[in-house]
Amino acid sequence: MYDHYKLLGERSVFAHGVHLCDDECARLAETGSAVAFCPTSNLFLGSGLFNLPMAEKHKLNVGLGTDVGGGTSFSLLQTLNEAYKVMQLQGARLSPFKSLYLATLGGARALRLEDRIGTLQPGTDADFLVLDYNATPLLSYRLKQANNIAETLFVLMTLGDDRTILQTYAAGKLVHQR
């Protein structure tokens, strides 16, 4: 129906995508459309699991979404935790680096704003968080066991939450500090 009414295109971001078939994924990718992967709401509602490997096979733009309507949190860290679980349930792996991509540049590309947000490249808006590695005793303990950046990211994405955010910067300016 969306295709019939010419609603597919580079400015189209479809939430969830839990019922997409292979052909639909291919068509979305072909038109430059994107999908917001919303694992917290999908798990809360029991509506299905997004097939990220299928989307990647078709080079579909995918970003991470929190979904205020059916989700349980605005926290991208908690959403990354749920995304990891969704992939585990499907027998697929979600690497810490892919997770970081989905939460940053993947979302920016889905919105066609990658020239402004999603990276710390010179000339971009410099929206970023400063995280507190000692926010909780468990987080601190697990991070001390991390041997490399991948392990550090994994701990942050599985144990991090709103308490982990120490500072928030928007357009390079401090806008919130705990």
From TrEMBL:
<dbReference type="GO" id="GO:0008892">
    <property type="term" value="F:guanine deaminase activity"/>
</dbReference>
<dbReference type="InterPro" id="IPR006680">
    <property type="entry name" value="Amidohydro-rel"/>
</dbReference>
<feature type="domain" description="Amidohydrolase-related">
    <location>
        <begin position="4"/>
        <end position="175"/>
    </location>
</feature>
<dbReference type="Pfam" id="PF01979">
    <property type="entry name" value="Amidohydro_1"/>
</dbReference>
<keyword id="KW-0862">Zinc</keyword>
<protein>
    <recommendedName>
        <fullName>Amidohydrolase-related domain-containing protein</fullName>
    </recommendedName>
</protein>
<dbReference type="InterPro" id="IPR011059">
    <property type="entry name" value="Metal-dep_hydrolase_composite"/>
</dbReference>
<dbReference type="GO" id="GO:0008270">
    <property type="term" value="F:zinc ion binding"/>
</dbReference>
<keyword id="KW-0378">Hydrolase</keyword>
<keyword id="KW-0479">Metal-binding</keyword>
<dbReference type="GO" id="GO:0005829">
    <property type="term" value="C:cytosol"/>
</dbReference>
<dbReference type="InterPro" id="IPR051607">
    <property type="entry name" value="Metallo-dep_hydrolases"/>
</dbReference>
<dbReference type="InterPro" id="IPR032466">
    <property type="entry name" value="Metal_Hydrolase"/>
</dbReference>
<dbReference type="GO" id="GO:0006147">
    <property type="term" value="P:guanine catabolic process"/>
</dbReference>
